[in-house]
Automatic annotation (TrEMBL):
Signal peptide: none annotated. The keyword Hydrolase applies. One of its GO terms (biological process) is epoxide metabolic process. The keyword Hydrolase applies. Belongs to the peptidase S33 family. It comes from the Eukaryota. This is Alpha/Beta hydrolase protein. Keywords: Hydrolase. InterPro entries: AB_hydrolase_fold. GO terms for molecular function: epoxide hydrolase activity.
Length: 266
């Protein structure tokens, strides 16, 4: 950000973007990075010695209905949905050869996450349904008939194509898992927490959901929002919600309004 002329700024991210924006907040806050927002927040249980008030709050405050469902979702993720993570953090190159060799294999690897981690997102074409199908669409429907039956057409294929046709290839997206776990040169797994203002948006199909007391324990939480629809890919599923929360957090009358000098918000 400094190299492109932004001396002060705020950030937003989900999934690995949470980790990236956290590193930015740790490394460049509060001098340059002024506040940050995520739709994939993490926390840690408070201890009696370091955070006695939060510890008691965590002990005696019942979970909300959304937090209870989030805890169930987190447990399900830990028990049944981390196989991909084990492979990508230990043998990414082996997996990379397979994904780079087979379009169908790449489709299967990503498709299940796009379905399971979203909140019944339709994945429909933006194409006008009143128009007759094009040759390209007919070919896609024939080649991916299982997707067609579910009504998942070009949006899904666009996601997969970004990985398949990129110059770096599908294997490139796996390296961040291995490098982060094996080297951790930025200390991202340390207990050091950023001190700059932090905001979080919560969606019901997010794969990990920690109680609010856990999040307050490691972040300077100034903004939260709760939604009844949306999942792990919220910026794609619910761009309206993410944009609204950014306006509410960083804009006029928001808790971080004016944190960047000379900019007064939306």
């Amino acid at each position: 950000m400094l190299s492109v002329g932004y001396d002060e700024y705020v950030t937003q991210g989900g999934d690995w973007g949470y980790l990236v924006t956290r590193i930015i907040a740790q490394t460049y806050g509060p001098k340059h990075s002024k506040a940050w927002h995520t739709n994939h927040s993490r926390g840690a249980p408070p201890s009696l010695t370091s955070s006695p008030l939060l510890y008691l709050a965590n002990l005696f405050t019942p979970l909300t209905e959304a937090e209870e469902k989030g805890a169930e979702r987190t447990k399900e993720t830990d028990e049944y949905d981390m196989g991909y993570f084990a492979e990508q953090t230990t043998r990414p190159q082996t997996l990379g050869y397979s994904l780079s060799h087979s379009p169908a294999g790449l489709l299967a690897w990503i498709y299940e996450k796009l379905i399971h981690w979203t909140n019944e997102y339709p994945w429909d074409d933006d194409e006008d349904k009143s128009k007759p199908p094009t040759a390209l669409r007919t070919t896609a429907d024939f080649a991916f008939s299982s997707i067609t039956r579910l009504g998942h057409h070009r949006s899904m294929l666009t996601w997969i194509s970004i990985y398949w046709f990129s110059k770096a290839g599908p294997a490139a997206s796996l390296r961040i898992y291995y490098e982060t776990i094996k080297h951790d040169e930025h200390g991202v797994r340390s207990s050091d927490a950023p001190t700059i203002p932090f905001g979080a948006s919560f969606f019901p199909k997010e794969i990990i959901r920690h109680p609010i007391t856990w999040i307050r324990n490691v972040h300077n939480l100034v903004f939260t929002s709760e939604y009844e629809r949306g999942g792990h890919f919220a910026s794609y599923e619910r761009p309206d919600a993410i944009a609204s929360d950014l306006r509410s957090m960083f804009g006029k009358e928001g808790p971080t309004h004016g944190v960047v000098k000379g900019l007064n918000g939306l």
